[in-house]
## 1
Amino acid sequence: MHRVVVAGGTGRTGKAVVRYLANCEEIEVVGVVSRMYAGTDLRKLLPDLNYSIPIFKQLEQALLAVKPTAVVDFTVPEAAVTHFRLCIDNKIHPIIGTTGFNDQEQSLFADLCLKHRVGGALIPNFALGMVVMKKALAEAAAIFPYVAVIDYYSDQKKEVPSGTSKQLAAELKIYDNYKCREIPVYSFRIPGQNASQQLKFGGQGETITISHDVSDRICFGLGVYKAVINIGKFNHLVTDLSDLL
Ligand SMILES: NC(=O)c1ccc[n+]([C@@H]2O[C@H](COP(=O)([O-])OP(=O)(O)OC[C@H]3O[C@@H](n4cnc5c(N)ncnc54)[C@H](OP(=O)(O)O)[C@@H]3O)[C@@H](O)[C@H]2O)c1
């Protein structure tokens, strides 16, 4: 049985992920971390949960009390860095969905995993549609000489551009067509907008658009589930969701 603590399990994404994981047979969500709801039970927020999940103020307390095998994090970068270190120190697998890290922080995560030989995951988009998008990206990038990355989110999303856009732009840079040029990234923040990631490829007299649209945050659940189940096979940092499927 995989014992999972979800840091940020009371947030918009964390709640959807907990709801998904709590229905998976091989996983028990043994705790949630939230400063605002600490000391209560997650059932107060999610009455349809089929078991009780205690809420802790800090990850340290959760680690001592419920001894997880993995920690899933959907919080903010500052907290996620602290959580990552704590996990590695305790030989617990960190699975980070939080976005917005700088290059230094990403290198730190990779170094910590390698040094302590603990598998960790840093995945800016757990939706399975992103795996398909990246496959389609490879086909189009081999043919079209121009590409732009576009992201649409609600105005609640602080990060500009999105972590997914940054990862897509980095991935495009490996193709000969784009090695020597800047890849433009356009971000739109619009009240009421669901998350949408697009790649627009251009050629002579034609364009092709690959679009991934989120209609419900439950779409992140299956990717996180796969990460929890498979992260034990690694002793380095995994950044590509397809490696965890
Ligand atoms: N990888 C993916 O597939 C994916 C998908 C969606 C979102 N995300 C990312 O996930 C993150 C969370 O997004 P969201 O929309 O769910 O945010 P949200 O609704 O604001 O929830 C944030 C959660 O983090 C906790 N939190 C906030 N500040 C904290 C701090 N300083 N220390 C500890 N906990 C803190 C909050 O609880 P308390 O304030 O009670 O502590 C809350 O539970 C963002 O970085 C977002 O880009 C990633």
## 2
Amino acid sequence: MENKMQLYNTLTRKTETFVPHTDGKVSMYTCGPTVYHFAHIGNLRSYIMEDVLEKSLRYLGYDVTRVMNITDVGHLSSDGDTGEDKMLKGAQREHKTVMEIAKYYTDAFFADCAKLNIKTPDQVVPATQCIPDFIAAVEKLLEKGYAYIAGENVYFDTSKLQDYYVFSSQSEKELLVGVRDDVEEDVNKRNKSDFVLWFTKSKFENQELKWESPWGVGYPGWHIECSCIAIGRLGEYLDLHCGGVDNIFPHHTNEIAQSEAYLGHPWCGHWFHVQHLNDKSGKMSKSKGDFLTVSLLQEKGYNPLVYRMFCLQSHYRKPLEFSYEVLDNVNAAYTKLLKRISELKEEGQPDPAVMEEYQGKFQDALCSDLNTSMAITVVYDLLRAETNDSTKLELIRSFDQVLSLGLTDGVPKETSSVDAQLEAYVLQKIQERAQAKKEKDYAKADAIRSELLEKGIALEDTREGVKWKLLG
Ligand SMILES: [Zn+2]
């Protein structure tokens, strides 16, 4: 088929025609979440843009197979080989086992994705289900001389490669120095950039999840998981690998190193990276400031699809600054757009010439390095076009297969201004119920819940406290 998608490739640092290994088919791999906490909306920006990319390729007629891992073991918080274990940290914080934490936050992640109309990849693979594959890959890397054992851990030897810093640029090298400065040196490493493939000697004595291996009881390094899952599920040649820009180094750099050492040939042709979401003070993270989640946006009255629209209106390679003022503007524009579309009537027959013209414009926008804001502009242009409503509706339905903004679902109920009186009333009742529970007056607590239910208000006890919503 005709290759017309122009897409920036981090590997070549150029926008180039996307050419898959097998004509018409695309194998696509996405680094999934480390499931130790809720995803913040900055993480979700990457998943939204990857979702649009996958749907764009399908829209262009490609047969896409997409795989995503779930990191439920072995991800250390420095993203190197030191730092704290994120999963263990989560489990300790919430007094749960690592597997309980993994299950809870995996479900929470997919619930957020569903609210944002992000399609679940064809295969979702938890790392803990692939331990034998990781062990086999590490054995092969040892056999081929790309790995060594030191201090009871297995390390990848980066000096064995012609070009380890495949993505390198001046700024990344500076970043590397910065990252390494505050990290304690691992004396077992032969080279500064070497990384762990398998841990048996970890500073985390209380590591919960451990497996037998030829090198003793231990657990895999983070990077090996993505290489093994991608190669195992999608074969030796990967067309497209996605992630956030903070995955470029060290994670994706290490994935390439070990995958190509393992396979003995180039592995993935195209690397797609989504830029950060920032707030006014810089990159958004879980550890600072307001921890922005989809649930929090909903509590503040925003439809999650307004956040999707906010992301789509900006280019994925530009840092995006989040603020409620901008989100409010997007909310107003989104509501207005949905209202205009809801006023279209199924009248007349779709006009094939107009259909072709606008489908062409829409595809051109997607093929211009995934220019989603231009794709949205095509929707506005179409609404102003001289053609009948049926043509418009048919086209908007087809565009929404990619945009997934619920464009033909009708106008959502006004969500941004929840009735203040109602809110005060419910909060008062929630307080009364909490007091009743404290006094072990469960009959009264139940009565308050029923009283609210009769008024169409449902309460939900969550780990962040009591939440409420209007039913129906
Ligand atoms: Zn990964």
